[in-house]
Write a structure and sequence with these properties.
globular, alpha/beta, 12 strands, about 190 residues, about 25% strand
Length: about 190
């Protein structure tokens, strides 16, 4: 990544964190519930059995109501490993630990589920653009994972105000196949911008 691109992403991260915080907790809660309802009605979700979700932190869209309402699904959540990797474990709300980054993650003693079993990934982000490019926190965890999973269905989860026109990206970034906001699920534009 060029220095200019890196600096731009850093500024965008702060802008998006500030924008997300400005939404307020009431709006975030209501929008999260709307997003959960929209995902629940989406045919891809209805057909999927093994779903990788995430545990929300710092104002991210909260998908826990979706997970709790659909216990028939095999829900997985990630655990961060060294070298920017993730492992996936069944979601067990009674066996979560606080990571040093602030989010909850599964106890490492819970059995690992291999990524080949995952059918749908509900992918968090600070922002997405209409082409499916994601702005994360800078660790590259989801990009590394998604780059090895070409056939996996990935759904970017974001508040409508953080669905931007165009985000900087580089050769290691991986766009999601769908995006959901409190308004709808949509497919990203198929042509990348110049």
């Amino acid at each position: 990544m060029t220095k200019t691109n890196s600096e731009l992403k850093k500024r965008l991260r702060q802008f998006c964190l500030d924008k997300r915080a400005s939404l307020g907790e009431d709006y975030q809660n209501q929008a999260s519930l709307m997003i959960c309802r929209i995902i629940e009605e989406w045919s891809v979700f209805q057909e999927a059995v093994v779903i990788l979700s995430y545990l929300p932190m710092r104002g991210e869209v909260d998908l826990l109501p979706l997970m709790e309402k659909n216990p028939q699904k095999n829900w997985l959540v990630p655990r961060i490993l060294p070298q920017g990797r993730m492992q996936f474990h069944p979601y067990d709300p009674g066996r979560l630990l606080r990571h040093r980054f602030g989010m909850l993650e599964p106890d490492p003693s819970i059995p690992v589920v291999y990524s080949e079993q995952i059918e749908l990934v509900l992918t968090p982000g600070l922002a997405y653009d209409r082409y499916g490019w994601r702005l994360g926190y800078g660790g590259g965890f989801y990009d590394r994972f998604l780059s090895g999973q070409k056939t996996l269905v990935s759904l970017g989860v974001i508040y409508q105000v953080l669905l931007l026109l165009d985000l900087p990206h580089n050769e290691n970034d991986v766009p999601v196949k769908y995006i959901v906001t409190e308004n709808e699920v949509e497919s990203p534009l198929t042509l990348t911008p110049d």
